[in-house]
Amino acid sequence: MLTVSFPAQAFGTNCYVLADAPGEECVIVDPGIGIEETLREVLTTHRLKPAAVLLTHGHVDHVFSVTPVCGGELAAYIHTDDRYRLADPLSSSSLGPALSGMLEQQFGKQVTWREPETVVEITDSERLTVAGLELEVAHAPGHTEGSVVFGMSRVPDGVPDEAEVDRTLITGDVLFAGSIGRTDLPGGSDAAMQDSLRRVVHPRPDSSLVLPGHGPATTLGREKATNPYLQGL
Fold first, then answer.
1. Which sign, positive or negative, has the C-alpha torsion 151, 154, 158, 159?
2. Cα gap 87→141, rounded to integer Å
3. Is the dihedral angle over the CA atoms 103, 118, 28, 192 positive or is it negative?
4. Looking at the whole model, is its pTM more than 0.85?
5. CA separation for the pair 203, 211 (Å, rounded)
6. S-S: 147 plus which of 44, 57, 109, 118, CB 3.0-4.6 Å?
7. Weakest mean pLDDT among 18-22, 80-84, 101-105, 173-177
């Protein structure tokens, strides 16, 4: 599986481009702030045609470029419980006043938002087949009400054999290398996050490659052994 990742210009949000192979259709995961030029280069280099945009949750640092990327032709997939965030992810009710003020300071009040034309609401345990890839949706609230983890029984090309991984989890802001997503923003819940880690994340095989919303890739086996938020689950 061809997998390309690169960080957005703000908040270090990871944008992922996944395809069966070069020259094929692809899915774009979490197109954040200022990713458009780099995304165009990735698509050109690998001769890829976007088929859909997948959103792990509705925070602005993960969805900011979804509308220009979709371009009126592609569908944006987001969990039902975070669908409302696409109405105005820049609002303080979505981000909290501190982060909203930070965005305003960096980009100015002129920043505007327009929803993508086609939005597909996804639900827990749903299976998606898009661009030749099969993905399982696992609802994992806590960071937001509609946070999800996307699971695949494939791994990116070029992963060394010694990594001993045989599947991939795209975890958004549910799980990072050594940490988890914050739960103090509007719609967040520590209790829900703990339940998601216990019910959704921890039972997955150690051989899962974790592609998080921020920071480096890791493995679930490594996180179970070292991540303090997975201890005692």
1. positive
2. 19
3. positive
4. yes
5. 17
6. 57
7. 101-105
- Would you state the CATH architecture of domain 2-230? 4-Layer Sandwich (3.60)
Q: Which residue has the higher pLDDT, 32 or 88?
A: 32
Write the Ramachandran bin of 192: left for phi over 0, alpha for psi from -120 to 50, otherwise beta.
Answer: alpha
Give the span between the Cα atoms of 52 and 43, in whole angstroms. 13
- The answer to whether 168 and 208 are in contact (CB under 8 A) is yes
Give the Cα-Cα-Cα angle 56, 54, 94 (nearest 5 degrees). 45
Cα(85)–Cα(90) distance, integer angstroms: 9
Residue 105 has pLDDT above 60, yes or no: no
- Among residues 28, 106, 107, 12, which one has the least CA distance to residue 73? 28
Three-class secondary structure assignment of the chain:
CEEEEEECCCCCEEEEEEECCCCCEEEEECCCCCCHHHHHHHHHHCCCEEEEEECCCCCHHHHCCHHHHHCCCCEEEEEHHHHHHHHCCCCHHHHCHHHHHHHHHHHCCCCCCCCCCCEEEECCCCEEEECCEEEEEEECCCCCCCCEEEEECCCCCCCCHHHCCCEEEEEECCEECCEECCCCCCCCCHHHHHHHHHHHHCCCCCCEEEEECECCCEEHHHHHHHCHHHCCC
